[in-house]
Amino acid sequence: MRRLLALAALLLALPLLSAYQGGPVPGVTGGFGEPTCTRCHQGTPPGDRDGQLALEAPETFRAGETYRLRITLVRRGLTVGGFEIAARYLARPAGGVQAGTLRALDPRTQVATGGPTSVQYAQHTEAGSKAVPPGKLTWVVEWRAPDDPPGPVVFNLAANASNADSTPLHDTTFTAERVSRPVGQ
Questions:
Q1: CA-based nearest residue to 66, from 121, 26, 103
Q2: Which of 18, 77, 87, 178 counts the most CB atoms within 10 A of its CB?
Q3: What is the tens place of the pLDDT at every residue in 46-61?
Q4: What is the Cα–Cα distance from 11 to 125, expressed in whole angstroms?
């Protein structure tokens, strides 16, 4: 009976896994009340000790200038992983609204739009989900700062280190958040 249940769970999970290997659904960064990768991946709680997620983003920015955001996911044995990041205004009245523009720089990343305020989400593609060599994944996306920012921008990021067993189980989700302030504010 246990094997039958495991097989049924695997068959139900396969369509989800193939869909998410090419990128998650928009809106799983963990910011502004969104869920994270744990919406579909279960396993070790975020921040487990044998891995880490790093986000390189500017501490300050100039209106209209372009910056590179570097996302690095490290975990022992990592062979497959993914990420999603959004750039939104931190505080009211624009809190949670898209701030600037995200752009993919190579075939390993893409930008999708979703949610009630049409937020952009940069995320992995199928090509960007494979860690070669195993243990580390790095993605770089471009962010163009808004022309007339009303205040600070927050980057919300979630990433998943998968164990590549073709199920949503035993994966590890990490989150990170960075605030970038306009120069002179």
A1: 103
A2: 87
A3: 544 678 999 999 999 9
A4: 23
pTM of the model: 0.84
Query: Encoding tokens for residue 152?
Result: 């600070």
Looking at the DSSP bridge assignments, the partners of residue 173 are 160
179, 183, 184, 185 alpha-carbon torsion, rounded to 10°: -20
Q: Which two tokens stand for residue 79?
A: 């062979």
Our separate counts of H helices and E strands in the chain read 1, 11
Residue span of the structural domain in which 136 resides = 2-182
- The 8-class DSSP code of residue 98 comes to B
Nearest to 22 by CA among 121, 110, 131, 140: 110
Domain with 17 in it: what CATH number? 2.60.40
Residue 46 CB coordination number (10 Å): 18
Domain count along the chain: 1
Between 128 and 19, where is the model more confident? 128
CA angle, 150 then 153 then 155, to 5°: 160
Other CB atoms within a 10 A radius of the CB of residue 92 amount to 10
- Express each pLDDT in 113-165 by its tens digit: 987 779 999 999 999 999 988 999 999 999 999 999 999 999 999 999 887 77
CA distances from 64 to 90, 93, 97, 144 (A): 18, 20, 17, 6
**Better-scored residue on pLDDT, 61 or 11:** 61
